[in-house]
Amino acid sequence: MMTTPLSAGIPVGDGSSIVARARRSADDDKQLRDQDFQAPMSRALGLGTAGLVELTEIERHERLTRMREGTLGSVHSWELVTAVDGPGTRLTVFLNGCGLRCLYCHNPDTFLMKDGAPVSSDEILGRIRRYRRIFRATGGGITISGGEAMMQPEFVRRIFHGAKEMGVHTCLDTSGFLGVNCDDDILDHLDLCLLDVKSGLPDTYKRVTSGELQPTIDFGDRLAARGTTRVWIRFVLVPGLTDDWDNIHAIGEIISKWKNVIDRVEVLPFHQMGRDKWHSLGLKYELEETKPPTPEATAKIREYFESLGFEVH
Predict the structure, then answer these.
(1) InterPro entries annotated for this entry (predicted)?
(2) N or C, which end of the chain is more exposed by having fewer CB within 10 Å?
(3) Confidence check: pLDDT of 28 > 80
(4) CATH of the structural domain 67-308, one choice from 3.30.1240.10, 1.20.1440.20, 3.40.640.10, 3.20.20.70
């Protein structure tokens, strides 16, 4: 969902040589040496579903059945990257389907589940197995993002169960809007949650996402009450939309209740690098004239969260 280096608005899924060396055939992977491998440190362009086996010939009924079971998912793209979606080098899988319509979404082509490629959970687990040594060496693991990953909870469940059986660190990037779909069993297999707190005020949240704020608060409350999953808070700073100090203070009040599980707060400056996707899809892009926040404005917001006792990036 989010992008970095700690910036919003960088699309994935278009294919690029920048992460091509992260894709290896099975034979190449046997020769891979931890000390020789270096995944990209920032997200530029992802791989789409290149390298994954797409089960495009499955009939609609079987596809729906398998998606309900979690053996099949609707996948937008994947990438292998370092220091972006959690600690270490991570395999990040972006799923299709989202119930929100964030004005600054950098991947509006993930809105609809039907637009994703059908990929089996075994295919993803096989790729996790392939990169286990890299994950161990870097402290990385698997991150599932979207879209909204909790649109496909059974697919996420199977991947996280399989990853933990391999001893691999698991991470979920979510808005928390569908936190009710993330049951205790999934949380029992989740090491880290990247929780996108898009606003602290219900009216602003509605304007930004077309959704309701309360489900995100409820999900954060659950994470704090359980105390077993670490949390990174992500907030996108958009001038004229999310940068009002009443909104910032409201976010501070909300997340201060979750201090026992929060390891860091990321303030992500808005960028326009997703604009072309909105245009190509024929969607109205309401932030056409919005400029990124100034470094000074971003620094002030970060200083505020630091004043609350958080590690801030």
Answers:
(1) Aldolase_TIM, Organic_radical-activating, PFL1_activating, Radical_activat_CS, rSAM, rSAM_sf
(2) C
(3) no
(4) 3.20.20.70
